Amino acid sequence: MSNSTLPPPPSLRSFTSSMGTAPYNVLAFKTMEPFAKRLQKTQPGKFCHIPITWEKFEDSKMDHIVVGGFSPVNRIRRSRVLFLADFHSNDAIMSQLHVLVMLCESFIEDLIILVQYLPVATMERIVKEGEVATANTVSRILSQLPPIGRPARVMFYDLHTLQQRFYLHTNALASMHTAIPLIKAEIKPSGPWPVQTVAFPDEGAQKRFGKMFAEYDLVVCGKKRVGKSRTVVIQDGDCKGKHVLIVDDIVKTGGTLAACAKALVAAGAAAVSAYCTHAAFPKNSADRFCPGGDRAIFRRFYVTNSNPTCVARINAKHTSGDGVFRILDLMPLVTADL
Q: What pTM does this model have?
């Protein structure tokens, strides 16, 4: 028998067959702790939440982090690790990098880093010399995590620009996922808020998501220069008499979405809703879309819980009763996409 036909040794066979079913030790940044606990509660045989204490030294205010699972029995060594990250600030990123480096040096078998929302993703390129493309630098740092025998897997949902997946290399590689199935379940004809037409605020969004809504009538908007100003206009499609859903990957202040909605209403849309996978909404900008706000034009505004700090603010003010916002839970997709 030639070497090419020899079966793998028993130890390798058992390892490769078990990796797909082995449970995950779930560790999380503090804002993702509720998500980690829900994972374990939903599938206790697959996910085991291990707590981390995130504190600061009183004198220096530097990180003092203690990861559980190492004593009295080391449950981390030779385990599959799912780390739930939240990169919402520079301080949060640095704190989590401390933990990720330590985990990579703790003889783990496998590492998956879930980054549902990447705030630096819109800084993927520079427009003037000297401006820092922070999406590139964060990706480089992740790519240089200590090797663990195979690259760490970094899970992204609806990343701002698809080419950013190639910013990761060597010791961390990206896997790309979409949250569009969540909104499609909401807007289907038998769903709670059926939609007849899907609109995109620009051609970029249409190229990203258009094929995912092939069964709907599509409308594409864009900005047109009128005199010294730029106005959002409908470039293609018909929305008259329809409930229209505007789809994009991220909303910050939402000015473009509101302008797009106004153009659709002016063109005869019966109602307009919006969906963005990621909600940023700096300060109190979400208030402007609620009753009494200057951008209160949407019947429903759907976002996911990818950005827990922002969603906490929305939940505290705008989702009770008949509030305009609806938060879609990423957990079913995460468990399926693992």
A: 0.88
